[in-house]
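Hello,

Following up on my earlier ticket. Below are the two sequence lines again, exactly as submitted.
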Amino acid sequence: MNPTEVRKDFPQLKDGHIYFDSAATSLKPLPVIEAVNYYYTKLSANVERGLHRPSHFATRMYEEAHHRLLKFINGTGEVIFTKNCTEAINLIAHGLDWKEGDEIITTFLEHNSNLLPWFYLRRRGVRVTLIRCDSEGLIDLDELSRSISSRTRLIALTHASNVLGTIQPISSVVEIAHRRGVKVLVDGAQAAPHLKLDLDSLGCDFYAASGHKMLGPSGTGFLFIRDGVIGEVNPCLLGGGTVKDVDLDQIILADGFERYEAGTPNIAGGIGLGAAVDYLERIGMENVRSHELELTGYAIEKLKTIKGIRIHGPQDPRKKTGVVAFSLPKIPSHRVAIILDEVGGIAVRSGYHCAFLLTRNILKEDLGTARASFYIYNTKEEIDQMVEVLEEIV
Amino acid sequence: MTDFDYELVKVCSRGGKEFYHIYPRTPLTRLPDSLARFEIKKRHEKYVVVEVDGYDVTIFTTGRMLIENLPENSEAKAKAIIEKITA
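Thanks for your patience. The regenerated structure is below:
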């Protein structure tokens, strides 16, 4: 993979700014922008409900996007398009039939999107157990195993931390859970854009991710539900497109993704997400990973040279995705971020990153952390520029 | 009242602390003259960090600012600090 060539596909980079905030949302390459534009200029029509040609071709593109994504993640099941990863997780939180006393296990690492939906279920008598992680952000499988009770129904955890990047041992979690009859939901928002996924190998029951973090348009995400489990998930919204038949006294729900995509979907977004998947496949996820390993390792080594810096999470890039969170001594992360932007034209995220429990209880960083997150369009030279500005700050 | 025209954005409110981001509608070209009245904690070609009423404020030559660690519900205080800086 040649980042210089890749960068030509990203119009936003032409103004010279440095974008290290892909963990929040990625930039969009021209083929994705063109796919969205093509839909709006050539095929603007509703899907799954028209005989005219624009509707026919838009439907074909929208459905193909589902198939391409399913192939991309290599899962046997259904893929449902959502507006983001948060919505995908909420579909499960509100779609399963919970009973009072049911238990959910999650972790201190989670983003609010994989924490608040479960906390909210406490109102219905569901118990939520949180397991801790070590200072590198790795969960303890023994603690996880000990936390499972006869009432545990679901383990919901991140594939990779949005703050530390730490990659969790999902296959082992699934093995432990399934042995005890517990289902597993994986928040893949920070993994799907960066790792080659093989959901059949991982074995999880549900996998949620953001399309907009993997080069897709804003307002896109997806939920994978494994075959054999789909019948256990009730749709949260019903309406046009979700049923096969309706009579006075019964409705027969549609099979597949249509059951969960009520009303007119984000058609342009879905088609754009399909184009994003094609783009990533052309590059090759092994190449994406290899590029990020190199950048992350380089960034950690360069950042280490800054006096007093605290780099959070694993120092071995092989244990993480392309995310590096750091703190400068007694300097609030928001100050670091605004100086990087104003002085260096460098975009990083600052604060708690919607991971309050991790930032406060594990990292103990009341001033938050600054987070640089890398993707296919970033370079070592950009990291050098960031380090130069940081050195001036301290 | 100064003629400094800006957007005031509360960045976050966490653990009882608020940060305010001040974005000038018309960028300035240099730091305000009033800065001599404040304790300068850090000086850089493109910004300074000063202490105003006990709060750290990062001020850029463009007029952009960050006011740090105010207590909750401090919008009026943030505006008063901006007024002092730009007077």
